[in-house]
């Protein structure tokens, strides 16, 4: 039986003793009957859509929710921050639990917890209640996001992994694009609790459809609760520090120090383990490590650009809310439309080359949006944002494919957890960059500087991706 290739550095990531038996079982699952095979794939993609739609809808409705609950905007931000913190602190533990207990079991529990949190959101009478519900949603969403591609890897052949990652990018992009419009349409007709209530029937269907996923036994490794607590403390301190860095820099510095200490203790504790919570075994692979670093940089630049562009359109270019929304649509729509082609290219071309080209395209689009005299001809922004969409689609599909192919199939959960962690770390860093620029620069020029910062980060991601220096990966099951 063929195995996954060793990491490009020549260092083979350790596997559990029963890895061979597990891989045999995974290969057998590729023989699922066609209807069940399609239902399994659909359940994973639909669960991702559920989480992304929820995030996009909530972000759009935040001012309305704050006004309804009669809380100041600064406090309402915790509706978003709490969910993000829950996601970031539990991604790696959820990945570890998936490997230990079985991906399907933890994935379905994640859906159930997410739905419980969604129901709590729909009936929340106070801000405190809503924040607690969003925390629960984050816990469930972490299991879904950490294990999605690991589950897809169980039901598609390896030569279709690039396509599966493309489907993932397509669903995320379409959900991100549809979320604001769907949220606005709901708020025109009914009150904000219906933003969450309308997701419940969809979520119940996802739960039922997930029954089609293959049952593959986990490793039965005992969960290390102390390591999970250190992991949660590391990322919780980091997210809170990011939220208070501009108003309370001393507190932020203290929290960052606490985060660093906990991370050091966690790495020391996990270093000798066969399957560490923080996947040090996978990070020993040059290809995997470069993909993670490039992902953090790219998502930081992407977030800075996506946050800055609406401010630039409204405050710098005098556009209204509706016009701003229309000018923002081409970006995620292009990501969605280009994802299938990006997945085919990822199966045929060097992932390092595709990541580099994608990063350069995204950097070029952001630079153009920042420096082009858009007041004279605003329509030029459309092809520039479409170039950003093409670039991100190329980078994201190729980089994620490379990340997963650098990991043995038995460690797909850990790879998924690390992928999600890299993305959220990048998004957090991008938001911090945007906040700092708004505090340091005049409001009318800060968005353009943020766009340039986003371009620089993506150019750096493109350059780092060239260090992979490898041909297209080819893996058998």
Automatic annotation (TrEMBL):
It is found in: Membrane. It is a multi-pass membrane protein. The keyword Aminoacyl-tRNA synthetase does not apply. Coiled coil: none annotated. Gene3D superfamilies: MFS general substrate transporter like domains, Multidrug resistance protein D. It holds the Pfam family MFS_1. Its main location: membrane. Residues 40-473 form the Major facilitator superfamily (MFS) profile domain. InterPro entries: MFS, MFS_dom, MFS_trans_sf. This is MFS transporter.
């Amino acid at each position: 039986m063929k195995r996954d290739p060793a990491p490009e550095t020549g260092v083979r990531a350790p596997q559990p003793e029963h890895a061979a038996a597990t891989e045999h079982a995974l290969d057998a699952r590729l023989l699922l009957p066609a209807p069940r095979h399609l239902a399994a794939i659909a359940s994973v993609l639909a669960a991702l859509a559920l989480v992304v739609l929820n995030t996009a809808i909530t972000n759009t409705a935040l001012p309305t929710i704050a006004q309804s609950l009669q809380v100041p905007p600064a406090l309402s931000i915790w509706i978003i921050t709490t969910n993000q913190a829950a996601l970031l602190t539990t991604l790696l533990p959820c990945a570890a639990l998936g490997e230990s207990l079985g991906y399907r079991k933890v994935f379905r529990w994640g859906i159930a917890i997410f739905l419980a949190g969604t129901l709590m959101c729909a009936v929340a009478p106070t801000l405190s209640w809503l924040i607690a519900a969003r925390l629960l949603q984050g816990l469930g969403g972490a299991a879904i996001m950490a294990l999605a591609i690991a589950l897809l890897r169980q039901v598609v052949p390896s030569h279709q992994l690039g396509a599966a990652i493309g489907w993932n990018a397509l669903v995320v992009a379409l959900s991100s694009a549809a979320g604001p419009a769907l949220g606005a349409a709901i708020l025109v007709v009914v009150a904000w609790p219906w933003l969450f209530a309308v997701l419940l029937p969809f979520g119940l269907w996802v739960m039922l459809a997930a029954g089609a996923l293959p049952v593959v036994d986990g490793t039965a490794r005992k969960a290390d609760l102390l390591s999970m607590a250190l992991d949660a403390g590391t990322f919780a301190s980091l997210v809170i520090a990011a939220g208070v860095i501009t108003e309370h820099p001393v507190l932020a510095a203290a929290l960052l120090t606490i985060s660093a200490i906990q991370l050091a203790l966690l790495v020391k504790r996990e270093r000798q383990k066969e399957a560490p919570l923080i996947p040090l075994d996978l990070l020993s692979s040059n290809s995997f490590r470069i993909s993670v670093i490039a992902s953090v940089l790219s998502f930081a630049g992407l977030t800075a650009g996506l946050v800055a562009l609406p401010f630039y359109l409204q405050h710098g270019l005098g556009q209204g809310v509706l016009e701003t929304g229309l000018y923002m649509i081409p970006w995620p729509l292009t990501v969605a439309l280009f994802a299938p082609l990006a997945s085919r290219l990822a199966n045929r071309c060097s992932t390092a080359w595709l990541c580099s080209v994608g990063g350069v395209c995204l950097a070029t689009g952001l630079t153009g949006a920042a420096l082009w005299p858009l007041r004279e001809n605003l329509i030029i922004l459309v092809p520039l944002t479409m170039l950003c969409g093409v670039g991100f689609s190329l980078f994201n599909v190729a980089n994620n494919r490379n990340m997963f192919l650098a990991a043995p199939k038995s460690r797909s959960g850990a790879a998924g957890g690390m992928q999600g962690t890299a993305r959220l770390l990048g998004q957090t860093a991008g938001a911090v960059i945007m906040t700092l620029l708004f505090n340091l620069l005049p409001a009318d020029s800060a968005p353009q500087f943020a766009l340039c910062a986003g371009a620089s980060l993506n150019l750096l991601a493109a350059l780092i991706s060239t260090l992979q220096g490898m041909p297209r990966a080819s893996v058998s099951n």
